[in-house]
Amino acid sequence: MSSNLGAGKGGTSPYDDTPSSSGDTLSSTGAGSPLPDFSASKIQLSTVAPAFGVPSSSLPRSAAAQPDYLDYDQKGRGVVSTMFTNSGISYMIGVTLGGLYGLQEGLRNTPSSRWKVKLNSVLNHCGRHGSGIGNMMGATAILYSLYEGAADNFELDQYTGPVQPPAPLFAGLMTGATYYMRAGPRVAALAGTIGWALLEELSLFTLFWGFLMEAKVGCGSEESLLKNNYQLTLEKSDPFV
To answer: Which of 44, 61, 101, 203 has the fewest CB atoms found within 10 Å of its own CB?
Structure first.
């Protein structure tokens, strides 16, 4: 047998524990050696380097992790997105309410007590009232969204002074007037006034609800503060508490 096998003097064996010259070279360079720049490829060194034990400080400047900034829209969603959302929700609510009303009317106005006749009457009334109310609410939601978006786009709040926010009120006024425009100017003006009043009441209710929630949170914090002060007073007066 040759004396070079194993850990002999004449050479190395693949079964030796001693690293080879290439392994010595890799270990001598260390993890801090410069790495090639893969910026032209789809490989992100900042992602795969920690898996191989390479610190981020040894990465090239172009491969370092950069913050990912997201676009922030202060005005929220666009007019088209808001219009589709409002119209879809309003249509579904209108169909549901109209269907429930049609169910009641169909059972009340059925001409016969037979099951097939009752079913036919219910289906007819549900379809008639559900589609009618759903279409009306969907079209109203589209008009409202368009007018509200126009008010926000032209920054109507700069010209209304203490009336804030003016976009819902303007949208309610114009929606009612536009929806009943074919009935004449008097009916259109009345419908616009009703729309304005409804949105005004909704705004006041929202404002009152916000104040109520703030007062509730404030009372809760004051109550907890009083309890903490009372507990501290007891601890100071009686060390066994």
So the answer is: 61
pTM of the model: 0.55
Beta carbons within 8 Å of 79's beta carbon, 6+ residues apart: 145, 146, 149, 153
Cβ(20)–Cβ(11) below 8 Å: no
Mean pLDDT of 25-43: 52
Question: For residue 207, what are its two tokens?
Answer: 């404002």
Tokens at residue 123, please? 């289906």
Q: What is the dihedral of CA 207, 211, 216, 218, to 10 degrees?
A: 150
Alpha-carbon span 38 to 137, nearest angstrom: 57
- CB neighbour list of residue 8: distance below 8 Å, 6 or more residues apart: 2
Q: Are 191 and 144 in contact (CB under 8 A)?
A: no
Phi/psi at 76 (5° precision): 80, -150
99-151 pLDDT, tens per residue?
999 999 999 988 888 888 999 999 999 999 999 999 999 999 999 999 988 88
